[in-house]
Amino acid sequence: MTANIDHAGTGTPPAATDRLTGPWHDTTLTPEARADALLAAMTLQEKTAQLVGVWVGASDEGGEVAPFQHDMEEPVDLDELLPHGLGQLTRPFGTAPVDPAVGALSLARTQERITGANRFGIPALAHEECLAGFATWGATAYPVPLSWGATFDPELIGEMAAAIGRDLRSVGVHQGLAPVLDVVRDARWGRVEETIGEDPYLVGTVATAYVRGLESAGVVATLKHFAGYSASRAGRNLAPVGMGARERADVILPPFEMAVRESGVRSVMHAYTDTDGIPSAADGPLLTGLLRDTWGFGGTVVADYFGIAFLKTLHGVAGSYGEAAAAALGAGVDVELPTVKTFGRPLADALSEGLVPEALVDRAVRRVLVQKAQLGLLDAEWGPVPPVLAAAEEADPEALRGTVRLDTEENRALARRVAEEAVVLLRNDGTLPLAVDPPAGAPARIALVGPNADTPTAVLGCYSFPVHVGGRHPGTPLGLALPTLREALAAEFPHSEIVTAPGAALDGRDTDGFGEALALAEGADLVIAALGDRAGLFGRGTSGEGCDAQDLELPGVQQHLLDALLDTGTPVVVTLLAGRPYALGRAADEAAAVVQAFFPGEEGTRAVASVLSGRTAPSGRLPVSVPRHPGSQPSTYLAARLGHASEVSHADPTPAFGFGHGLTYTAFTWSDLVVEREQASTEGEFALSCTVRNTGGREGTEVVQVYLHDPVASVVQPVQRLIGYVRLGLRPAEAARVRMTVPADLASFTGREGHRIVEPGALELRLGASSTDTRLVARLTLTGPVRTVDHTRRLHMGVEAEILTDAP
């Protein structure tokens, strides 16, 4: 397809002859030098145009994108805006259902209009959501981030992110708004499904791998939400955050610090929330002092949607949109998303009134232009035609329709691998795995009971396209094959009769369906209870953005249904397709088995079925604790001594299943702990090793988790915290020798004076299968003076695993 796309009937043709040329097109110069040259040639209005996005939707007829109207924004006049340029296009694919090839044509035509309209021929940077895959019609729906955490497998998540990035880049998208690095502090928060877990080290390592994968495809990754969003009071969305500086420094910030240092990330999104009265969007010490001056971040800071306007409307720290723009720009926010609100006329007025120095605009624009240069958008030979259209012979929407697949067999296979590794076996009395063949004892009749038994979208999170956008277009096909749990079980257990009843609506209070469900259960050999969540936005679901819970009881009457099923006497296997952990009441001790899957994506029901049959060995581990009581919040394992069960309170937050927990279909022994160095200085390191052997009859995966316990410290510390982990896949009788080198830096924490320090004294390294299952303990001592460390400290322990050849 030629670069000059046919514009007949789609808008104003480009005026390429009017474009100015200069050193900003010279690819032999650094991106910084090119940005400086372009910045010097721009008018103030051209500069501010680069600091805004416009929310648009691609045309399913192949015409130019149309501005998307939201109740929080005014209509955008592109004819007035585009002659000055445009910074970003917001979600051209993720706003309404559009065929991928036709959407790519629509975006390309729009980019040609944008470049033709401004003096320098600068295209817009297009961004999309990609939290559980490219959030567009027909693209692969991968498991949600909470499932990424359950894999304890950063390498696999990086592979998934690279695939997502390739799909984004193929259709002309430059930036993805992921990953989420918020650490879960209260599981009632609706956005728990979007997080990686409740431990900062797990979150940091998995998120960093995701960023590397996305960036490897040439797509700008975006860390969010910086910082503290997940620590809102009572788990309420956007509620104030009341944590102290020490919790922020030691729990909330480390994942962001790790990703900035190690991943090559090029964008950060500020959080909506305020911490101790300071909104993140106006927090200069956070967005500039820490992020840039201390950590050395050189990319762009983008606003969470409408977040700058919220400084006026929600936080009340700005009296006008101009004041909000001034506060955000001064703090270090570079780009307003999703559309022009405060960085348009209000910012222009603030500049003319002297409320904002032009140097702040120049600072932000330079960062934007550097990024556009890095992406090739300032190259003289840049063209709007994306890779998927490069071989097309004509720009005919009908000829292109159906020619681009964003849900390939390779993608589905990868989605299944992630889903399989993410399924967590919480409890098993020996009922699982289930036999498939009748001679081996396959159940003749399985009663599949529960509201998620036959619901295709039960595997999807709130940022998957069919849930996030598809609900507004009820007549549009899903665009994906989403086998229900009933269909997946029927395929996995072909010799078993599967009988199904919902029992109750997922979040309803009506128990009229109990009779049918219990009758099926009483007449079956086995009950599989299909329970959990429905993802949605702002109250349309039981999990998702704005769907916060008052407690962690299963939604609706599901717990009552589950208790009634247990009363039938038929063995009950609980399967949970959910976005957060829930208390399970009696089932935590009485169910035959409990299988947890956190919105496992389009291949999720097949993954669950394969774990039930044993075709897949369960290897997932909990990234969040599962509470025993629905009201015991917050229940994160990262609590100080008085945050755990004690004699001074009758409320017991002890979880039913702790962070890191997950069973297998085999058994492992841990032995031969050798501590090579029991003492080290506060700037030294420890060395230790142990042997892990598969003593069962099946191949399986053990996740060696290393927790640090500091018995006496100058400030209160969590009882223990994760500092490292490694997945070990071992065949029956096979063993691995695991060697660990633990730098003293990993014992650091924020001291009384606000500095990160390493203190001398006794330590314990607890090697365990979970936070509640310690297998080996190394008692160590740090010697020497208190040592102050900074952002250059070591963040990881060294781990080597050698497979042993000797027989048991």
Structure description:
The protein is of the alpha/beta class. It is globular, with a radius of gyration of 27 Å. The strands form seven sheets. The chain has an eight-stranded mixed β-sheet with strand order 2-1-3-4-5-6-7-10. A six-stranded mixed β-sheet has the order 11-16-15-14-12-13, with helices on both faces. A five-stranded mixed β-sheet has the order 20-28-27-22-23. Helix 6 runs antiparallel to helix 16 (409-422) and helix 7 (200-216) packs parallel to helix 9 (254-262). The chain has 22 helices and 30 strands. The longest helix is centred in the N-terminal third of the chain and has 18 residues, at 100-117. This is Glycosyl hydrolase. It comes from Streptomyces fungicidicus. Keywords: Hydrolase.
List keywords for this structure.
single chain, 808 residues, alpha/beta, eight-stranded mixed beta sheet, six-stranded mixed beta sheet, globular
Low-confidence stretches: 7-17
Name the beta content range: 15-25%
**Count of distinct strands:** 30
Shape: globular
Query: Number of helix segments?
Result: 22
Structural class, from helix and strand content? alpha/beta
